[in-house]
Every structure is written in structure tokens, then in C-alpha cells.
Amino acid sequence: MQLAVLDLAGTTMADDGLVLAALRAGLRAARVRVDGPGYPALDRQARSTMDRSAITVLGELLDGDMYRARRAHSAFTEYLTAAADDGRVRPVPGAPQALDALHDAGLKIAVICGFDPDLRDRLVVALDFGARVDLLLSPADVDGRGLPEPDLLHAAIRRTGCTASQVAVAGDATADIDAAVRAGAGLVIGVRGGAHGEPRLRAAGADAVIDSVADLPALLGLPG
């Protein structure tokens, strides 16, 4: 392996309900009652799709009303930015050490997510990942084509000069797995404890499933 492509929220950044809380803040800004009778269905829909582009998810939750979706997205972004500023954003335990181990072994590291670049970069700074990551990619960097489309992975492969067979992809959601399979990644790894459980990750095509991104170096046979 020459390149590790890692998902952000839920895989390298601890979620703990933070992204879902941001989505609720966005829906409130769009005048959706999150304590009303219709919210449980929206909550289930959000949980099943929140691994994709944030603006896409909000647009779907708001029945395609992109005016309201953009308003919701602004509130979503403000919520997560405030969380970063307040110290509520933290890495998954062992993630920084895993990134260091990958770098020490000569792998390049790309982090992908469904957030806009400004928010993504703010979160990466809050996580102290900046010096540990070679490439950051969001849907905005590939004409808006986020997961489960393989465009983010194709861009990472192209920009780092690797071939698909030299790439290991790790993520906690089926969209990560689907994109990796479609991109022809050499190793597709599901991570437990995030958006989707092991059965769904394996059904989507994961070659292996690990408890945490902290276990990735050992899976690749690298020093801990």
C-alpha cells in the first residue's frame, strides 16, 4: 500500500452525536420542528444517509427545497465550527498515533469527508491532523460528486501518483465502502462503531472490518 484514504467524521474524528446535532441545528434553522411528530422519520433518514455530502443530505431531508437546504447548511456549518472553537471536536482514540505510524511506514494519507472545504480544514486543525495528512478532499473539490461516487478516491489516487491497487480505504459507512469498491481500491476496510454496523459494511464489499482506525497499522502489518 502506498496511500491510505480515511474518512473524517466517525472514522478519524470522534462523532459522539456531534454531526447529528449539527443536522438538527440545521433543520431548526429551516423551521423544521425537531420535537414534532414528523421528526423521528427525518432522524432515521439522516442517520442512514449522513455519510454523504452535508448539503445533499439536507436537501433530501427538506424534500429538495434547496433554498431552505442552504439555510440549514449554514446553521449546520456554524454549529460544527463553534464545536471546533469550543474544543468539542476530538480525534478517535489512537487516530493520531495511527496516522503517524502510516507516515513512518512511507504511506501518504488522504482524508475525505462530506463537509465544505472551509469547515473541513477547521476541523482538521482542531484535531491537530494538519501535519499528519498529505491531502484533504471534499465534494467541492470534485464538482460536488461526493460519496458514494468514487470521484473523491479517483482524485486522491491521481494527485498522489498511486494506482488504485496501492490504495487502502477505511471508513465507517457503506458509502465509503461502495466508493472504494467502485474505485478499485486494493484494500477496502470497514470501521465498526460509526454510521453502519459490520454486517452492512461487509455486505457493501469490505475486505476487512476493524474496531477502530487505531487498528489500521496492525492490519497492514506495520509497527504500532
From TrEMBL:
Coiled-coil ranges (or none): none
One Pfam family per UniProt: Hydrolase
InterPro entries named among the record's database cross-references: HAD-like_hydrolase_sf, HAD-like_sf, HAD_sf
Stated name of the protein: Phosphonatase-like hydrolase
Lineage of origin: Bacteria, Bacillati, Actinomycetota, Actinomycetes, Pseudonocardiales
